[in-house]
Amino acid sequence: MHPRIPPAHVHFFEIITSEELKHHHLLRLYTFNVNGTAYDNHVHQYQGISGIRYGHYHAYYGTTGPAIPLQDGTHFHLLDGTVELNAYNTSRGGALVKSKQIEGLIQELHQHSYTGYSSVGMSYEPW
């Protein structure tokens, strides 16, 4: 008999970064799916690009902390890290140029830190 493998699932997170150069960014992302339960200390990988502010954005990636169980058997994960140095686009058209025209372009290289927690697990595969 094969051991039962816990179902794969994902978590959502929405975090505001630290304020640097008088602005911050919104990070919204689903983690990569992983098989795990609330009690096995599994972690998830994640990656994404921040919301665009002042004509630039930041890439970010990382690994969540281990599963933190809740009384009802669900779990969540803590997240913390630092986004990559800012990137910007001077091409014509698109959201980056619109952001630059409305808010003013920040070209100084900088980073933001972030910390927060995910939603409980969701989109579980059938077990």
Gyration radius over CA? 18 Å
What is the total tally of β strands? 12
* C-alpha termini separation: 16 Å
Q: How would the global form be characterised?
A: elongated
Query: What structural category arises from helix and sheet content?
Result: mainly beta
Strand content: 25-35%
Low-pLDDT stretches: none
Estimate percent helicity: under 10%
Q: What is the helix/strand order?
A: EEEEEEEEEEEHE
The biggest beta sheet reads: 2 strands, antiparallel
**Strands ordered across the widest β-sheet:** 1-4
Q: How many H/I helical runs?
A: 1
Mean pLDDT: 88
Provide structural commentary:
With 127 residues, the chain is mainly beta. The chain has 1 helix and 12 strands, in the order E-E-E-E-E-E-E-E-E-E-E-H-E. The chain has one helix spanning 94-103, and strands at 8-9, 12-16, 26-30, 34-35, 45-49, 56-57, 59-63, 68-69, 75-76, 78-82, 87-88, 113-117. Strands 1-4 form a two-stranded antiparallel sheet. Strands 2-3 form a two-stranded antiparallel ribbon. The protein has a two-stranded antiparallel sheet with strand order 5-7. The longest helix is centred in the last third of the chain and has 10 residues, at 94-103. The chain is elongated. The two termini are 16 Å apart.
